[in-house]
Amino acid sequence: MKAIWPFRHLGLKLLSLVIALLLWMAVSGEETVERGLRVPLELQQLPAGLELAADVPITVDLRVRGGSGELSRVSTGDVVAVLDLRSARAGRRVFPLTSDQIRAPFGIDIVQITPSAIALVFEPSTSRSVPVVPAVDGRPAPGYVVGAMAADPADVEVVGPETAVKRASEAVTEPVSVTGARERVRQLVTLGVLDPSLRLKNVRSATVSVQIVPAPMERTLRNRPIHLRNLSSSLTAEATPSSVDVTLRGSREAMSRIEADEVAAFVDLAGLGAGDYQLTVHADTSRDAGVTRIDPTTVQIRIFSGK
């Protein structure tokens, strides 16, 4: 039998003893403190076929005790409260929170948990089909309005607690911008439901088609004077005829708000010298109405030298 020599590797044994002694001195000399922490609440093992039917707390408050150095090194996620739901069934249930359900680094003791119990409401999980309701943002070009809207798919299936699913009436889309549009707008957008307890079963997006059509009402303003714009200061000019009729299109509300003086017919004379010209007439109006016709569309302009 081989004899064991107790002084073999003596240097390594002495070094280990010194390190252990230093660690013991560091730990035993460290001040023990208490600290408050707000930690995440993690739910595990929710039985299939059940849904949480009410707001669930996402954090709990703890009082913890440990060495000051150890606690100073604790970061977000190092301490977590874990709630095991495998025994849950439909109805209101109360789950106690104990120190055994707190996941924390070695050397940290749990002194207090607030709240000490979590009340949760469970309902059977169910689903049903609801229509997709498109949403739009902005205004079409003046003289145009939003027409029929359609989504593809037209219906989606929502999943969630039984009572919430029964209340659900629609799924909504991310708004489709129709700002300045004069023709159909077609866009792929994200789908969602407003109730946070519900979710979509499969589909996450839809293609929305928005028809942009001429506004339903027209109004003609007679004998609007023609303004001569951007004429050189050394010239004079006259228009024949000196007035035009301007036809606007917009909603009934917009048409009722527009005053005749708000619509300005004009001809742009920028860069023109003396002479005769046949020029197009333009018109300015509010952004709620569009100009659909100017009669006549062109006028005779005579520009003279001198004042």
Report on this structure.
This protein has 307 residues and is mainly β. It folds into three domains: 85 residues, RNA Polymerase Alpha Subunit, Chain A, domain 2, CATH 2.170.120; 90 residues, RNA Polymerase Alpha Subunit, Chain A, domain 2; 89 residues, Beta Complex (RNA Polymerase Alpha Subunit, Chain A, domain 2). 12% of the residues lie in helices and 52% in strands. The N and C termini lie far apart (132 Å).
Describe the protein's topology.
Layout: H1 10-28, E1 32-44, E2 50-52, E3 59-67, H2 68-72, E4 80-84, E5 91-96, E6 102-103, E7 109-114, E8 117-133, E9 136-137, E10 144-152, E11 155-161, H3 162-167, E12 171-173, E13 176-177, E14 185-192, E15 199-200, E16 205-214, E17 217-229, E18 235-240, E19 243-250, H4 252-257, E20 264-268, E21 275-280, E22 282-284, E23 289-295, E24 298-305
Parallel strand pairs: 1-4, 8-12, 9-13, 17-20
Antiparallel strand pairs: 1-3, 2-8, 3-7, 4-6, 5-8, 8-11, 10-16, 11-15, 12-14, 14-16, 17-19, 18-24, 19-23, 20-22, 21-24
